[in-house]
Design goal:
The protein is α+β, with helices and mostly antiparallel strands and about 200 residues long. The protein has 6 helices and 7 strands; from the N terminus they run H-H-E-H-E-H-E-H-H-E-E-E-E. The two termini are about 20 Å apart. Keywords: Membrane, Plasmid, Transmembrane, Transmembrane helix.
Length: about 200
Amino acid sequence: MDASAKEKRQSQIKLFFLMVIILGAAMVLYFTMPSEAEDKSSQSEPAKEVFIDHEKENNLKSDRLINEHDIEDAEKEKIQRVSKKFITEYYSYDHKKNDNLAKAKNYLTPEFYAELKNGEEKVGFAYRVIDDISFRNFEVNNGIPRLQVYVETSQLNEKKQIVRTVDVQFDIDLSRQKNDWKVSYFSVIGKGIKEHE
């Protein structure tokens, strides 16, 4: 195979994976978005409060009711600040130190930290740098504050040259523990990748 055919094949493979990601995201959105009929019926009803048993869920001593109206702008800012610090500490990576999870520990619930610690793996690059973080959506779902955060990153080799740029979306759930917001769960969805030479 000559070089141009190989490059064309690589481009086709990248396009295929990008289409799979987009199709998967569209399916998730389709099946998780409420229908218009549900939207209209929920607008006529007052906001529902959800009882959260923090003692059971997060080993706390107090219970409270949480709904979207309970979280004021100042609290939303705290939630965004904790989420941003968590992403910066956890998703940045330096192969020489490999301490990103330890640095993010203060922003995680103890149970979720233990789960992540058990699942650590070796990555295929030397450094990952956070280029930009932007907040896309905030909602309270079943009494749990949830943020959707778009993150642009660069992956670098050992010479600190950019190998690829990767865009991802974090969906972050938070819970209040001892007057601080902690990340209780997150998922990462790939949104785009661009190889550099």
